[in-house]
């Protein structure tokens, strides 16, 4: 919002203050002045960043009201004196509201016999100073009043309005309408509030008028609209139709229905003076649901206790009255009624904030918070996130934080089937920020893959990322979606330092498997890995596995990104390895902090066993069977061989077994007996043979 100090001076006395002092006052009151300039000799102009909850600050009058409260100076309220003549407005035109849920008020004036021409220099200069291009006197007056009072207006050529009647009516999605900019639009919002004459729409309410009723050089009679619309419906229509204007910017934040009549009168009087028009007697004004202010209980004592201040009650009431609140004594406190231009004031805490803002945030004393007497343990979910971050960062991965909104085409890129839950339960966003962010993510994988694409575009030889975040699955239109905490990671490119000690090599499946194995051990939730036909389709089945708990409950999946998915995401040739785990399940099943287990003070004994087994038998199953023996303290697989010296359909697995007792030193005979018992177990369960 831009405002010239000369214009502000029409409503509040700014004498004795420099432009910088005025800017500082507004900034300290929460209206940040982003720029202070003097363009083309038009006087000093403030550019103010206005938050969405402050529609009242989108006008010269609203800013002047703020300054009047801050400076403790009177506000010069506008009071146009409309000189009316000729027939009554009811004999010349009519208005109607067919949809009071979306149009709260519809006021109108008729101005006859105007002469269209350029605006006087003072009006054109004020508009130019705040960034609006002068067009003609009628259009400039509507823009001038919009900036001055915050009420957007629209002027129609009365002779082009069918039946000389304007009606506010909702039209459905798909309606075709040509706007003032000459573009034919197929309206995309579910509800499109239109201003219509007897022949059809002549304006997209609160956004832009129609080409069929624009002001032309030959226009002689003006039908002036001043209405108040539902902020949510204007916002949805503006977003859906991709059409944003100065009017919609104000309406979608909440306009003041009480100012419609004043704005129509102000514009009509200016049209009489600057365009030579005759203002018809009276004003059309439909207001089916008049504004009724909420009643807010206010206690100065509670306000001071909340703010930590010692403001006098009379100080608080002065600034609250200055911004338009009506006050009424009620016992030890007051009953306050906010004005129609402040829809953001609905609770007592809002009033406390206004008192603090207008009396100065700098008057709130600085105090140190009092810490609790005892330290509280962090929630289990926090501990899980912390442990996961520590282990993954220690493994060389960097944390990635990607958007929760992703491209709706992720399902096609990942090759998901039509009945896939990740496709069926996708949660669309009603008002997406862009087409690239149209749905909430059901997986973390698309965000990490896109991060890899960016790294590859910047020539990074290695990408190692992880992310902890929520994924979202729809439960239908009338139910809250399911949200699950998830851990995901990605490896791609060169592994190793590239030295003579640690040569560089491409990432492979064993890197991602070892990473997941290490992570699950750190989270006290050991995982088992197996091939399964039910793996997600974006993995190459030759290099992928399911991670599960010891009881077989699926925990997640890991593997190499399939070539088709990699091409769909625009990746380069380097293979990408992903994992994604259900953190909610880990939190539910992990036993928490592991108890300390004492180590043995007796020496261990190692034995190597080379076993002949079926080539399709997972080594993890063999290892799990051997670990059932209480005397086996540990094992490691150090060799896998398939070749000429192994029968067809077989493979050789070589394990190093570590035996250790908590009570004594084991003898060779005891260790050999343990090995014989293990061989017997493996022979019976898997048909294993000792390889000589």
The structural domain count equals 5
pLDDT averaged residue by residue: 91
In this structure, how is the largest beta sheet organized? 8 strands, mixed
**Can you give the helix content as a percent range?**
25-40%
CATH superfamily of the largest domain: Bira Bifunctional Protein, Domain 2
User: Which fold name fills CATH's third level, the topology of the largest domain?
Assistant: BirA Bifunctional Protein, domain 2
The level 1 CATH classification of the largest domain is Alpha Beta
* CATH architecture group name of the largest domain: 2-Layer Sandwich
Radius of gyration: 37 Å
Low-confidence runs: none
Which word captures the global form?
A: elongated
How far from one another are the termini? 87 Å
Quick structural summary:
Helices cover 29% and strands 27% of the residues.
Structural account:
The protein is of the alpha+beta class. The chain folds into five domains: 2-71, Phenylalanyl-tRNA Synthetase, Chain B, domain 1, CATH 3.30.56; 84-286, Phenylalanyl-trna Synthetase, Chain B, domain 3 (Phenylalanyl-tRNA Synthetase, Chain B, domain 3, 3-Layer(bba) Sandwich), CATH 3.50.40.10; 296-362, Phenylalanyl-tRNA Synthetase, Chain B, domain 1 (2-Layer Sandwich); 380-589, Bira Bifunctional Protein, Domain 2 (BirA Bifunctional Protein, domain 2); 605-690, Ferrodoxin-fold anticodon-binding domain (Alpha-Beta Plaits, 2-Layer Sandwich). Helix content is 29%, strand content 27%. The chain contains 20 helices and 34 strands. The strands form eight sheets. Strands 20, 24, 25, 26, 27, 28, 29 and 30 form an eight-stranded mixed sheet that branches. Strands 4, 6, 7, 14, 15 and 16 form a six-stranded mixed sheet that branches. Helix 5 packs antiparallel against helix 8, helix 9 crosses helix 11 and helix 10 crosses helix 11 (348-359). The chain is elongated. The model has no long low-confidence stretch (mean pLDDT 91).
């Amino acid at each position: 919002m831009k405002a010239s100090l000369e214009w502000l001076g029409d409503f509040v006395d700014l004498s004795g203050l420099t432009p910088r002092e005025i800017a500082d006052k507004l900034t300290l009151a929460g209206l940040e002045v982003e720029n202070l300039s003097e363009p083309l000799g038009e006087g000093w102009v403030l550019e103010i960043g206005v938050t969405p909850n402050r529609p009242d600050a989108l006008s010269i009058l609203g800013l002047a009201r703020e300054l009047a409260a801050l400076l403790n100076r009177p506000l010069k309220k506008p009071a146009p004196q409309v000189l009316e003549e000729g027939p009554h407005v009811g004999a010349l035109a009519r208005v109607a509201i067919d949809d009071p849920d979306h149009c709260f008020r519809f006021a109108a004036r008729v101005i006859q016999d105007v002469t269209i021409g350029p605006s006087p220099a003072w009006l054109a200069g004020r508009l130019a100073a705040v960034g609006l291009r002068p067009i003609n006197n009628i259009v400039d007056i509507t823009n001038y009043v919009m900036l001055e009072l915050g009420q957007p207006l629209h002027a129609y050529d009365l002779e082009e309005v069918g039946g000389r009647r304007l009606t506010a009516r909702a039209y459905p999605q798909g309606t075709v309408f040509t706007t003032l900019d000459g573009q034919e639009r197929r309206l995309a919002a579910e509800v499109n509030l239109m201003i219509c004459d007897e022949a059809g729409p002549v304006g997209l309410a609160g956004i832009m008028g129609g080409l069929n009723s624009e002001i032309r050089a030959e226009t002689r009679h003006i039908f002036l609209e001043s209405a108040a619309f539902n902020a949510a419906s204007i916002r949805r229509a503006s977003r859906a139709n991709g059409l944003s204007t100065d009017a919609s910017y104000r309406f979608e934040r909440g306009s003041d229905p009480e100012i419609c009549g004043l704005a129509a009168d102000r514009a009509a009087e200016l049209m009489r003076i600057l365009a030579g028009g005759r203002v018809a007697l009276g004003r059309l004004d439909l207001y089916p649901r008049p504004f009724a202010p909420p009643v807010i209980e206010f206690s100065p004592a509670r306000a001071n206790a909340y703010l930590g201040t010692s403001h006098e009650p009379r100080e608080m009431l002065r600034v609250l009255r200055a911004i338009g609140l009506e006050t009424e004594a009620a016992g030890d406190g007051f009953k306050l009624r906010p004005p129609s231009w402040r829809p953001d004031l609905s609770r007592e805490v809002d009033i406390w904030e206004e008192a603090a803002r207008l009396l100065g945030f700098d008057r709130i004393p600085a105090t140190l918070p009092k810490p609790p007497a005892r330290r509280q343990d962090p929630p289990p979910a926090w501990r899980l996130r912390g442990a996961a971050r520590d282990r993954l960062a220690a493994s060389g991965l960097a944390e990635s934080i990607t958007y929760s909104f992703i491209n709706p085409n992720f399902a096609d890129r990942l090759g998901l089937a039509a009945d896939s839950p990740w496709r069926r339960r996708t949660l669309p966003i009603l008002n997406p920020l862009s087409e690239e962010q149209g749905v909430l993510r059901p997986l973390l994988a698309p965000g990490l893959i896109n991060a890899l694409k960016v790294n590859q575009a910047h020539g990074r030889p290695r990408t190692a990322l992880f992310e902890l975040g929520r994924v979202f699955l729809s439960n239908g239109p009338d139910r809250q979606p399911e949200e699950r905490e998830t851990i995901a990671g990605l490896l791609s490119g060169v592994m190793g330092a590239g030295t003579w000690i640690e040569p560089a090599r491409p990432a492979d499946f064993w890197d991602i498997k070892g990473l997941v194995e290490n992570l699950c051990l750190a989270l006290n939730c050991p995982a088992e890995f197996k091939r399964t036909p039910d793996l997600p389709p974006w993995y190459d089945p030759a290099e992928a596995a399911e991670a599960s708990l010891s009881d077989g409950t699926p925990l997640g999946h890991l593997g190499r990104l399939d070539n088709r998915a990699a091409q769909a995401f625009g990746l380069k040739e380097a293979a990408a390895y992903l994992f994604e785990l259900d953190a909610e399940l880990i939190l539910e099943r992990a036993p928490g902090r592991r108890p300390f287990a004492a180590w043995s003070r007796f020496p261990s004994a190692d034995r190597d066993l080379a076993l002949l087994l079926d080539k399709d038998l997972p080594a993890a199953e063999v290892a799990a069977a051997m670990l059932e023996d209480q005397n086996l303290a540990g094992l490691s697989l150090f060799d896998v061989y398939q070749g000429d010296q192994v029968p067809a359909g077989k493979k050789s697995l070589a394990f190093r077994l570590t035996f250790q007792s908590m009570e004594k030193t084991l003898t060779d005979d005891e260790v050999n007996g343990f090995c014989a018992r293990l061989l017997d177990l493996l022979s019976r369960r898997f048909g294993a043979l000792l390889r000589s």
